[in-house]
Amino acid sequence: MSKVKKRKLSTPKQLELVKAEMDKLKKRLKSKDVSAPNFVFGTQYYITEFAHSTAPSCNFATMVLIGAMNSYLENDVEKQNS
Fold first, then answer.
1. How far apart are CA 51 and CA 69, in angstroms?
2. Helical axes 36-54 vs 11-30, angle rounded to 10°
3. 67 vs 70: CA distance, rounded Å
4. Are 61 and 51 within 8 A, CB to CB?
5. How far is CA 26 from CA 30, 35, 38, 51, in A?
6. What's residue 69's pLDDT?
7. Which of 40, 53, 55, 82 could form a disulfide with 61 if both were Cys (CB 3.0 to 4.6 A apart)?
8. Domain ranges for the chain
9. Do 77 and 67 touch, CB atoms closer than 8 A?
């Protein structure tokens, strides 16, 4: 049996995959009456816990989390200004 080397997805491809899976989860939970605010709180709590449990340090985890929020806000401002 030959081993097939898996190619690592690019960061944009990984982000697209995560977004698609989160959209599916959002739809499944909405059908179970999970409100949007509770979905946001629950996912952010989980993501924060996940970041801190897998990062090399607390500071690094915090930097990643804040970096993601900052990136979203920068893109939002660019959209508003164009």
1. 14
2. 140
3. 5
4. yes
5. 6, 10, 11, 20
6. 94
7. 55
8. 11-81
9. no
Given a contact cutoff of 8 angstroms between Cβ atoms, the answer to whether 40 and 19 are in contact is no
Report how far residue 19's alpha carbon sits from residue 26's, in angstroms, rounded to the nearest whole number. Answer: 10
Per-residue DSSP letter, 5: P
Tell me what pLDDT residue 2 has: 58
- Predicted local confidence at residue 82, as pLDDT: 86
Q: 43 with 23: CB under 8 angstroms?
A: no
Question: Over the stretch 33-68, which tens digit does the pLDDT of each residue have?
Answer: 999 999 999 999 999 999 999 999 999 999 999 999
* pTM check: above 0.85: no
